[in-house]
Write a structure and sequence with these properties.
It is built from 3 helices and 9 strands, in the order E-E-E-E-E-E-E-E-E-H-H-H. With 202 residues, it is of the alpha+beta class.
């Protein structure tokens, strides 16, 4: 890294808004502090990029970085390009770093080559299709998907309830047909007794 640059940090571009009437962008940048900073730039940039930032109080090319008005907007630092940081690379384009670098961290001493970051070697192995991980993350559902799933579950429970009721009704009906009421049995027994008495009297 250029010895004339000190205090540089990695920043995560959180939001990019055009400055009205200007060919400038107002960037909200997370630099690992309690609050994000605002940096105005004319360089091409997108939210989600991890770049190298010279916040207020840092030094670039031997000059201290101060808060300044850029396009009528207060800018609290600047985005550094590769030549500023490493003395080589594309100029006028913010120097980007891999996602392994957290906001507020010191930038790499050498320009990244686009390969895996410094933490790639320690990254855990991804299970193959033949092996299932012990714990699998459930897929996050949208509101509509949750609603559909809830309706499907509700219909499933209603169907099970109806099936149970139909089974109980069928069982009750079969029991009624198989076992005549006790009153009917008593009436039949009484009728037979009267018939026996009548024959005896004859």
């Amino acid at each position: 890294m250029d010895s004339r640059c000190t205090g540089l940090v990695v920043g995560l571009i959180v939001e990019v808004e055009p400055v009205p009437g200007k060919k400038l962008n107002r960037c909200t940048v997370d630099v690992g502090a309690d609050e994000p900073v605002t940096i105005v730039t004319n360089a091409p940039i997108e939210a989600g990029n991890r770049v190298i930032v010279a916040p207020v109080g840092s030094v670039v090319n031997g000059e201290p970085v101060k808060k300044a008005q850029v396009g009528g907007v207060a800018s609290e630092g600047m985005l550094c390009d590769a030549p500023m940081v490493w003395g080589k690379g594309s100029a006028n384009i913010p120097a980007k770093v891999p996602d392994e670098y957290e906001p507020g961290a010191a930038p790499p001493a050498e320009r990244p080559r686009g390969g895996p970051g410094p933490m790639a070697e320690s990254a855990p192995e991804v299970p193959t299709s033949k092996e299932k991980p012990l714990f699998e993350m459930k897929q996050k559902l949208s509101k509509e998907e949750k609603k559909v799933a809830a309706e499907a579950k509700k219909a499933e429970l209603a169907a099970k309830k109806a099936l149970r009721k139909a089974t109980v009704d069928a069982s009750s009906s079969a029991a009624d047909d198989a076992d005549p009421p006790e009153e009917d049995l008593a009436s039949d027994a009484q009728a037979l007794s009267l018939q026996d008495d009548a024959h005896a009297n004859v």
